[in-house]
Each structure stands twice: as structure tokens, then as C-alpha cells.
Description:
The chain has helices spanning 3-8, 14-25, 32-48, 60-64, 67-92, 99-125, 130-141, 148-159, 175-200, 211-234, 239-264, 291-296, 303-308, 330-337, 340-358, and strands at 271-273, 276-277. It is mainly alpha-helical. It has a two-stranded antiparallel sheet with strand order 1-2. Helix 3 packs across helix 6 (99-125), helix 5 packs antiparallel against helix 6 and helix 9 crosses helix 11 (239-264). The longest helix has 27 residues, at 99-125.
Amino acid sequence: MSVFKKLGFFSAFIFPALVITGYYLGGWWNYMAVAHAFIILPIIDQLFGIDTTNVPKDKAPLISNELYYRFITYIWAIFQFGFVIWGCYAIASGTFTSWSELIGFTLGFAVVTGGIGITVAHELGHKKDELERFYSKLLLMTVCYMHFYIEHNRGHHVQVATQADPATSRKNENFYAFWVRSVFMGYKHSWHLENERLRRKGKSAFSLGNDMIWFNLLPILFVAALTAIFSMIAGTILWSVAIFFFTQSILAFTLLELVNYVEHYGIQRKEISPGRFERVTPIHSWNSSHVVSNFFLFQLQRHSDHHANAIKRYQVLDHYDESPQLPAGYSTMILIALVPPLWFSMMNSRLEQWHGENEVVLG
């Protein structure tokens, strides 16, 4: 892989740099990260275009095992943990002079923890290495979405592109209805999956071995500790720290759900017999190979290959011409998804073309 591409994956750190710089500059500068994500990045994405080149098959194993690429994700996990503590400090310091500043700071913060942080957690959560899995859980703790570790790996990847999957958006389903179903049904299903795991081992669902119990407790304990520490320093109870933490968490996992909505809109796998579906292939997720946004998102937009080969590392994910292609990168598409009529007018014709090519009966 070229030096340009290798360095490109460090571009994700631009976003927290913008949040931090905006905070110290004050005022409308707090919106720099949001502006970069949803105005500047889409423009740059269109200017640089699409990269459909793949890592040669004979070089993929070597590049896949390079520590450099894992190192970037490790650094991000450690950085984000400190970044969240710094964010709570910024809130505790009480330096914001207006609601507009605070809103800009919180939105930009969620772009970092949700747009980049959950993407890294997603990458690490698929790996077998215990350190990578630990970092995945650490990142998800900072956005109160630790159950994603269970539901995504043992639920979504099994049921994707079927009616049973809460994270697969349906045709003509708007994002807001999808958000409610995906968030609450995904959470419920993660309890079911974890309870079933314990039952198979002959353990009680109420035991300390139930990961879902810990996944619910740890974010609360984390923010309680931060609130207590900053409150002791200030000499008064700072509820603003907890409010900020939970607000940025909701915004962060809402970004994740927007990505889920975009990635899987309307795609269905063929049911080959009652309850049995065809194998997941690169045609069962929307794909985007826009070069710049893929640097920021660790090639998450090559989602078709990820679902076909879930354990594959981000740096060697392939582009497939036969995959359904999004007309733009995620930054643009999630903005469009927030306006249902615009989304439907843009995506339904593409979806119908996909169904026609793959002979799936529309529901």
C-alpha cells in the first residue's frame, strides 16, 4: 500500500483536533468539526472521486498482518478515552458563554465519538485478539452502546438483509422509524443472545458472567466517577457533566444508526427455505468507495466486502463492481437520510434496480 494511503488513515484525528481547537477559540468555531464532516468532506469526496483499486491478493496477507494498521486503532481507543474525560472537563469548567457554543461543541464531540469512535470499535470488535476486543468495549463504553458488541457480531451479521434484523432498514421506512426499531429491538435482542449464551453454558442469566449486566453498569459507573471527581474539584454537584456525557452518547449512536440505515436500506436476501436464507455476499450491502471519506472511516464504506468477510481487516477490504453502489459517501448520504422524501426519491429507483437484477420479490 502506498505511503499516501497509509498516512491517510491518520486523517481521522483531524476531527478531534477541530473540536479541541474550536473549544479554545470559542464562539462559532465550535462548529468546525460539524462543518468539516458535513460540508467540507462531501465536497472533497466529490473532487477526489472513487478509488476502486484493491490490494493484490498475493500482498493482502502481509498487509493484513502489519502492526501499523492495528497501531492506529489502538492509539484511537486510548485517545478517545482521554478525549471524553477532557470533554467532561470542558463542560465542568463552565466556559461556554452561550447555548450555540455548547450545542456546536456537543455536536462536534459526537462526530468524533460516534462517527469515528464507533467505527473503530466496530473494526476492533470483529477481531479475535483479546486486546482489540477490549479496546472495542472501551470505546463503546464512552458512548453508552456496549450492547452493540453483542448485537452487531452475533445478531446483525447473522440476520442482515432479512426481516429479523433490527439494523436492516426496510424499503420506504424513514430513518426516524428505523432509529426507534433498531435502537430498542437491537438492545432487546442483545439480552436474548447473551441469555442464550449463558443458558448453553448452564449459567444463570443473573450471574456476574452476563456481559449485558456489565455493559449497562460500566458507562454509568464511568460517568458517575467523572461527575464525582469534577464536582469535588468545583465544590458543587455538576450534573452538567452527566447530562453532556449522555447527550453526546445519544448523538453518537444516532450517527451509527444513520450509517446502518444507509448501508442496508431495502436490501433483502433470498429465502431458500422457511427460515433459511442465501449466504451473505458482496451484493447484500450498499457500498461506497469514495477515497477521502474511506480514510476517515477506516474503509467502513467498503461495507459489502465487510459483510461477506467480517473478520477481514479494514486495510484490505475490496471494492466489488457488482455491489450496489451509493451515489456519494456516508457524510452526504446520512444528511439525505434525514430528509425522507429526498432519500426515497434518490434511493428507491436504485433499490428497484438492485431487486430486478437479483430477482428478489419486493415486500
